[in-house]
Amino acid sequence: MAEATTAVNPCGGSAPSGSGGGASGTPGAEGATQGGLMGMFFPLIIFVLIFYFFIIRPQRKRDKQHSNMIAGINRGDQIVTIGGFLGTVREVRDDTFQIEIAEGVRVRILKSAVQTKRANTSNNENNQGAAS
Fold first, then answer.
1. What whole-number distance in Å separates Cα of residue 52 and Cα of residue 54?
2. Which H helix or E strand runs over 124?
3. Taking the CB of the first residue and of the last residue of the chain, which one, N or C, has fewer CB atoms within 10 A?
4. Is 33 helix (H, G, I), strand (E, B) or coil?
């Protein structure tokens, strides 16, 4: 006894004998592919925008403010270094400051090591004393 066999398509149907098995003849296959790509890239684009507005842009703003603050430091200004040292600027050079951290103790630091510029309290006290 001879048994007959039929070819079965993995998608559940039987394959016609003349087709190549491709989906190129089905209408709407190209549109589904484009919608799938947009569906994949849309969350990525949203992630990049969130990353830019919450991380990159504020960091650039802080860097710009810090560089403007460093550019505005002159001789006699009081500064705080990243290490926590308080000092008075005695000399300004291209990329360094010479600061006095105690009477007679002068050190040279990089401009990038300055954390903040402090208000001169001695000038404010003198101005308040003269106004009274």
1. 6
2. helix 121-131
3. N
4. helix
In CATH terms, is domain 74-120 a member of 2.40.10?
no
Provide the percentage of residues in the chain whose pLDDT is more than 90.
58
Q: Would you give the DSSP letter of residue 113?
A: G
**How far, in Å, are 32, 62, 79 from residue 120 at the CA level?**
68, 23, 9
pTM of full prediction above 0.85: no
Amino acid identity at 115: Q
Distance, in Å, from the CA atom of 10 to the CA atom of 20, rounded to the nearest integer, reads: 14
* 54 secondary structure, DSSP code: I
Check residue 94 and report its DSSP letter. Answer: S
Collapsing DSSP states into helix, strand and coil, what is residue 17? coil
3 — pLDDT class (breaks 50, 70, 90): low
Half-sphere exposure in the Cβ direction for 10 (13 Å, CA): 2
* Of residues 48 and 35, more confidently modeled: 48
Which uninterrupted H or E stretch holds 110? strand 105-110
